[in-house]
Amino acid sequence: NAGVTQTPKFRVLKTGQSMTLLCAQDMNHEYMYWYRQDPGMGLRLIHYSVGEGTTAKGEVPDGYNVSRLKKQNFLLGLESAAPSQTSVYFCASSYLGQGSGNTIYFGEGSWLTVV
Amino acid sequence: GQNIDQPTEMTATEGAIVQINCTYQTSGFNGLFWYQQHAGEAPTFLSYNVLDGLEEKGRFSSFLSRSKGYSYLLLKELQMKDSASYLCVPMDSNYQLIWGAGTKLIIKP
Asked: Counting beta carbons within 10 angstroms of the beta carbon of residue A63, is it exposed (0 to 12), middle (13 to 18) or buried (19 or more)?
């Protein structure tokens, strides 16, 4: 059972470079999310999607873009990386509306360092 | 505003019982999750409460009082592997999850 997979797991970028984080889920979930987590802090929602072809801004969307062209994939892009974007990024998915089925399932995380 | 209040850190002894308290304020309410997060790993689901009362699942139990904006996670028969952060995560009326920094639980032999 793959669940939620994200790539790459580790990446070092130079300031100003661009990159894309890939997330795939095989649970047929409608909702997908991108979070970042900085040391000693809670998860902060960057962008999310409520279904194929839709995206919405979360709490900290600036400097990031996303796309959900297929239901199972959710891509997070950094157009011009900045040191402030050094963080751990978690992709997640969920299927709402079924009580405990609201559970969010997370990928293993992507450690991004911008130098 | 929306906020969550949990102790930053707690220490307990292997084999003992520990209760992690959480108070929250949200715009509307659609349930509350507890997640466990080991250092360097993703959060993993522990429990979900939407109605008042106690939900028991093995060594872990979670309690909710909606009128008080209060929840707790009870861990019994503590094991060293229970050393982790425990995240109290309420869901608001828009189904948005409100994440805090959680409680870091340290288990000592």
From this structure: middle
